[in-house]
Design a protein that fits this description.
By secondary structure, the chain is mostly helical. It contains two helices and no strands. The radius of gyration is 24 Å and the shape is flat. The chain starts with a helix and ends in a 5-residue tail after the last helix. Keywords: Membrane, Transmembrane, Transmembrane helix.
Length: 80
């Protein structure tokens, strides 16, 4: 068996072990205890209160702006 073939088999084995470990972690969280926690959150208020950062629309718009900025910087100055 060649050296590169052995290293490839070791890498595949390591990836399989990591994938199985991640699966075990996910399955372990599936059967969490039911704590019966009653959370009472006040959702009222104006739009500019302290809760605007938890709005998913803010995160989506922010991500789109960041992607556009990265695309413009990666594109360069234009025609060369």
């Amino acid at each position: 068996m060649t050296r590169s073939n052995l290293l490839t088999k070791i890498q595949i084995f390591a990836l399989a072990v990591a994938a199985n470990f991640a699966t075990i972690l996910v399955k372990a969280q599936d059967k969490a205890a039911d704590l019966n926690v009653d959370v009472d959150m006040n959702k009222g208020g104006d739009a500019m209160s302290g809760d605007w950062m938890s709005n998913p629309l803010v995160w989506v718009i922010g991500a789109l702006v960041l992607i556009v900025i990265i695309a413009l910087v990666a594109r360069g100055g234009g025609n060369k």
